[in-house]
Batch of 2 targets.
Target 1
Amino acid sequence: MADPLLRVERLVRRFGGILATDNLSLDVISGELHAIIGPNGAGKTTLISQLTGQLLPNSGTIHFAGQDITRLPAWRRSALGLARSFQITSLLPDFTASDNVALAAQAHDGHSFRFWGSARGEQHLRQAAQSALARVGLADRADTLVSKLSHGEQRELELAVALATKPQMLLLDEPMAGLGTTESARMVKLLQELRREVTIVLVEHDMEAVFALADRITVLVYGRVIASDVPAAIRGNEEVRRAYLGDQHVVTRHG
Amino acid sequence: MIASLNARNSIAALVVAGLLLLPLYTSISGNVFVLTLFTRIVIFALAAASLNLIMGYGGMMSFGHAAYLGIGGYAVGILSSEGIGSGFIQWPVALLASALFALVIGALSLRTRGVYFIMITLAFAQMAYYVASGLAPYGGDDGLTIYKRSDFGGLINLSNRVQFYYLCLGCLFGGIYLIWRIVNSRFGMVVQGLRSNEQRMQAIGFPAKRYRLVCFVIAGTMCGLAGALLANNTDFVSPAVMYWTRSGDLMVMVILGGMGSLFGPVLGTIVYLLLEEALSQVTEYWALIMGPLLLLIVLFGRGGIMGLLGRLSRG
């Protein structure tokens, strides 16, 4: 097997006395859709934040495309092709949908110390934005302010923004959070298309979606990996069952 | 939306026309005082506009912006007292000194956020104030008289009231045009994006601090120009111009006019300084009236005068 695109080794992150990430190791192979599941408080978002650089680990290493990125700031990781969506929608609320995506394209189109020409007049940025918006089904909402978009549309826009950075890997933190049934179905369909182009790490509570989409699933409990395998094996894993059905609270699709 | 834009634009156009034609009025009426007052207003409008660039568009609440008024002013004053009267030297030095100060202050204070940023910019400006107070060879606390205005050869005569007024007005319009270009450029989009959501901007690949710092330096330099103009206008520069209440005045002018609107700071400055002038002639306790008045505008006019205009025309 080739080197993994993302390799996490013995990652540790403490918050005071709590071990949110406990000696965690993980490989994500290029081209796969790798889901990370686990009960509430298992440290999934903490892990994603360390992968994208919003949080620094106490120890351990993260390699992306063969490069040590453990201490790189978030913006440099983005430049290397690591994009994320946020669990709690994080966009530029007072900008239009199109502006949000165009800025992501601009970030990967040379430096932005250009003070004179109109940024909104740059056709190639606008076109990049338009095609990313079309990708997620928001083409006709391009000129709408983000604060006026519905929650579901904002989730889709998160994805369009991530796509516009032309990533090698997408880290999606609960893209289905707060979506209704039809919106969820649309998102699953969208992810099914995207997985053909880009490696995806998916953190999700919606088990139906996870088992429908994932090539491999890693299960986190209390910051530790208790299993990492293909969906069928995870389904039959005794330890996983215990984690979900035992003293830990059962996680449902609306978790 | 269109209607509100029109209302704002027509007010702006009216003010621009008024400012352009003001010397005509003074020459007809012989009322020189109005020209002197408006020269001051135009200079402060430039300072407020530069503060608006970082505060309104960049979301950086600098409480030390008056420091650049002093630095620009002292550059002119000190060079003049050392016998260097040429504006071609004085003004570039004023701009450069302001830019350098902004670079150092910005590099240190942009590590912090929110209240801490406000406090640290305030602290640095106060430091500049005390340094100026201690400059014994250049007047110390009492300030420094400038006996001869900056000399630009035959190009322009700063001692001529009308010429000087138009120079200030040119600087203001030039400054606003520059801000307009910047705000709509790639750079401006990044700075405004950082105001809106820094975490998101970092996640899509923008190094936040260096963009903020450059914006901070541009604003400081622009305010340094206002400082050089102000020193020429009063023929005098003193530490008082850097005092924290002066920084507060600038903030009020920006908020009053409308943060993050191109022309707001100009309106804010005009209203603020005219009110100050008018009220101080009625009573020496003018601040007692000014305070509540400002409170009302801030409470009921979100977005300042520009916001108010927008809502009025929408009905």
Note: Residues 247-255 of chain A have pLDDT under 50 and may be disordered.
Target 2
Amino acid sequence: MHNILIIIKKQIRDTLKNKMVLIQFILFPVMTLVMENAINIDGMPELFFTKLFSVMYMGMAPLTSTASIISEEKEKNTLRVLTMANVKPWEYLSGVGIYVWVICMIGAGVMATGMKNEDMPFYLFIMAVGFGISILAGACIGIFARNQMTATSIVMPVMLVFAFSPMLAMFNESIEKVARFAYTQQLKTLMDDMAFDGIRTDSILILAVNAAMMAVLFFIAFRKKGLE
Amino acid sequence: MIRCNDVYKSFSGKTVLSGIGFDIGDGEIFGLLGPSGAGKTTLIKILTGQLEFDSGEVSVFDKDVSALSGEDRKNIGIMMDQFGVYERLSCIDNLKIFADIYGVSHDRIKSTLEQVGLKEAGNKPASTLSKGMRARLCLARVFMHAPKLIFLDEPTSGLDPQTMRQIHKIILEKKKEGCTIFLTTHNMEEAHKLCDRVALLNEGVIVENEAPDKICRKYNHQKTIKLHLSSGEDLIIPHESKSAEWIGRLLAAGSIETIHSSEPTLETVFLELTGRKLEEDEACITF
């Protein structure tokens, strides 16, 4: 626990000076606040921008930031220094994962400010699940990639699929048929219903398969590459 | 402090280390000399438990290296050539991370930075440091928790002579404090200046393991004395008793400008033993 807290502290110090990661964390919450307050079109669904940007946020920020943090540490050889100082790989990965998850949840809290109080727990639950799966995906890429450039080139297509498919699915039925197998699309559907008793079994199944797949990929990447 | 016995290591069928054996006592500076690709970094990785070996025995602090506990590892400081620093963080913040990991008081950060000559640069981001300052920051990170055993992998590689001298001074201070230091280098002058004992490593085999002076004397086959006279003439005379009278006369007459005995350097010994130069194909930095 001691080393996990040190990693979290280090990440907080570093993020304040890392504009690339900082922007990813604050872009969507700020955009949500601006758009929800600035744009009001007749017939537009309630909390349209909040829901749209929330799905993009969960598919983008944790994925790219986790992959970027891990791959940068590998590229700059600071990760090796940490492991030589007796920081265990699981402590490092937990530290980064917890840090990204907490920061994203704060962002989700900001995005939820326009919501009714009774919807907030469900919304935050959905976001928490989405962030968790995205962090696993980001960690897979971070572990697998040798450096930041490789990480970015892998993250881009993955991020586009997960972050933008729910938006594209709103306009195209064929895309919707494929996108429904992505966790972000399922979470978007759940968010539209905004009720715990509206959660369907097929949604749970798809989310579980997505999470299990990410977990398996994560363990394969870790077993194959470690934190080298 | 370190015992290495008949260690073998190969990668994809290619033997990288072959029958490596040596003992390093407490408070000793042990130098491992060899050209690039000789197996120096591989050996450090084995000694620090970063890499498994095929056969042999390695013990550190009288324990099998694979059985070192977290507490044992806290008594080891490692500076590898390729180790990085957190670029966006200041020198102080870089050290704070490791002070927290090792449970060292933050008060020690200032004195450690002062020790390596980075007191003024404490609040500077590491990305703005020169190569020499960055090397000293890495040294500060190694020394901060006062480890008993320090591994330095080419600590002065590519640095300017002034920074090199500063780092040598720091290393010798650590020896005085009782640290055992394992140093790899391909700079024979550095090895001669710092090390109590050096091992010459070539293609994974230790070809010599002794005190630097002893090695040089052992391979002094020529046994000659070279004189440079004030007339500009160079004389090479046998290193024997009957030359003494003649040298005495030249000295009395004030005719000698310089006088050198012919012991070889570690470089020439290495060349004699292996047919290779220590700094082959590498930028050569001399003092």
Note: The mean pLDDT of chain A is 88.
